[in-house]
TrEMBL record:
Keywords assigned: Glycosyltransferase, Transferase
Name of this protein: Glycosyltransferase
EC assignment: 2.4.1.-
SUPFAM superfamilies listed in its UniProt record: UDP-Glycosyltransferase/glycogen phosphorylase (SSF53756)
Length: 497
């Protein structure tokens, strides 16, 4: 009788996972995709956003309606410690991270300590597992240890970037940092295992491109990344056929590393298998107002004729840089769809400052907008190339859609991703550190005309491997099943703190 009762208790147990992303579009987007995948598996999720991100999601996304299909899903909020009018873009994101590392832990600990009231539901009142953005590595690990809750880290960056961050102490020990000046940028970095033959100073993540080896941001990023070896496991939004060699190096320090990406493609597959969600539309996880009218414009364009241009949710550029891109796009004589966020350009750009020939050419073969449904745009038959900041979500979406890339990285993980796209994966061209209208014009024409067939072959093969990984029996599909099983094995902690 005792054994039968125990078995029934285990079978009736529903784990509740707290998912806590860094408050930026790319981080929130893929962690919401993970939340939906867990919801499809019957796991209850409490998704914790900052107040600022939560308000923007409610304003611009269908998050509440979409997640209503998952009975155990809860949305909760926490302060990022900053005033509402803080810009929270560009390099200011470092400011957000510092604020949260300083102010969030005691608040979150208080919420977890009374989670039956705040973070749970009647059917699953306690958080049994924390999936934290790995950028909060130390904060999450400390909370998990203090409250006896298993912690899993989710890094929203590429495996290659994670590995460089993890290798920072080795790079410093090899005296390959600091960088002494511009003349140093093409110097090889040979102390990162697996990248000895192609990694240059200019390809390092921006936080690693420092002139002072004691730079506090460098050590913060390295310290938080190393914390992942102390977590129960690590989740990466990648797949073995894309980054397997680097993931093998990561597993020497983080043995339980789950590669479950590309998440947006994985979610599409799992939703299609689910009877109640048989019709798939890409998730709206945007914290920006989406302009869908661009889809009608794309419908009217010839096959593979449009270069799509977007520098993501954080990039900020000077007016002069904007104008060089604009001239280059117009001079290429190609059709272009360009996302120009209202907060993307430092300072105002009045209509009277834009040369008449740019206005006329854009009216003829261009389309400018503030934000688009990117996954749908990249999948559209009219799109033949992507001029991108090399954010990780954008890169994965481009790969799955078989769209070759021109990479103009801005910061963080983007410089190393652009190097991999151009040098290792052969999926496009790396334009980092350059913004000249003639180079923009040449690269657009190279991508869309000169190298079109070559690019089509390489992108098609990598997309095929991506699709295989997330289909039943593929590496990412199996890894997600293993992750779900691990989460199911978690139990309510033995005693409340």
């Amino acid at each position: 009788m005792h054994m039968a009762h125990q078995t029934a208790t285990v079978q009736n147990f529903t784990p509740r996972v707290l998912i806590f992303p860094f408050p930026a579009q790319g981080h929130v987007n893929c962690m919401l995709q993970l939340a939906e995948l867990l919801g499809l598996a019957g796991i209850h999720v409490t998704f914790l956003n900052t107040d600022h991100v939560h308000r923007r999601l409610l304003q611009h996304a269908d998050i509440q309606a979409r997640f209503a299909a998952y009975p155990g899903f809860l949305l909760r909020t926490i302060s990022d410690g900053l005033p509402e009018d803080d810009p929270r873009s560009g390099n200011e994101m470092r400011h957000v991270l510092r604020s949260m590392l300083e102010t969030t832990k005691p608040v979150l600990k208080g919420m977890l300590s009374t989670c039956g009231d705040i973070l749970g539901s009647d059917s699953s009142p306690y958080i049994t597992c924390i999936i934290a953005d790995g950028i909060f590595g130390s904060l999450a690990n400390e909370l998990g240890n203090e409250l006896n809750i298993p912690v899993i880290h989710f890094r929203t960056i590429s495996a290659c970037c994670f590995w460089i961050y993890f290798s920072v102490p080795d790079i410093i020990k090899a005296e390959e940092l600091p960088i002494r000046g511009k003349e140093d940028m093409d110097r090889r970095i040979k102390s990162v295992a697996g990248m000895e033959t192609f990694l240059r100073c200019r390809d390092l993540p921006s936080f690693c491109q420092v002139s002072d080896e004691m730079d506090p941001q460098l050590h913060l990023v390295a310290r938080e990344t190393r914390q992942s070896s102390r977590a129960q496991s690590l989740i990466l939004n990648t797949y073995e056929d894309l980054e397997g060699p680097i993931v093998s190096h990561i597993r020497t320090h983080c043995p339980k590393t789950y590669t479950i990406g590309p998440l947006h493609a994985h979610l599409k597959v799992r939703l299609a298998k689910n009877v109640s969600t048989s019709t798939y539309t890409p998730s709206s996880n945007s914290i920006f107002e989406v302009d869908r009218s661009c889809m009608a414009w794309l419908d009217s364009q010839p096959f593979k004729s449009v270069i799509y241009v977007s520098f993501g949710s954080i990039t900020v550029m000077k007016r002069d840089t904007l104008m060089e891109f604009w001239h280059g796009l117009v001079n290429s004589n190609k059709r272009f769809l360009w996302v120009v966020r209202p907060d993307m350009v430092a300072g105002e750009v009045g209509n009277d400052e834009i040369p008449a020939e740019l206005v006329a050419a854009t009216r003829e073969r261009g389309y400018l907008t503030g934000w688009v449904p990117q996954e749908e745009v990249l999948a559209h038959g009219a799109v033949g190339g992507f001029l991108t900041h090399s954010g990780w979500n954008s890169t994965l979406e481009s790969i799955v859609a078989e769209v070759p890339m021109i990479c103009w990285p801005y910061f963080a993980d983007q410089p190393i991703i652009s190097r991999y796209v151009g040098e290792v994966w052969k999926l496009g061209m790396d334009m980092k550190g350059v913004c000249d209208r003639k180079i923009v014009e040449k690269m657009v024409n190279d991508l869309m005309v000169e190298r079109r067939e070559e690019s089509a072959r390489s992108t098609a093969e990598m997309a095929r491997l991506a699709r295989n990984s997330v289909n039943e029996g593929g590496s990412s599909y199996c890894n997600l099943d293993k992750l779900i099983e691990d989460i199911r094995l978690t139990r309510k902690r033995k005693s409340a703190p």
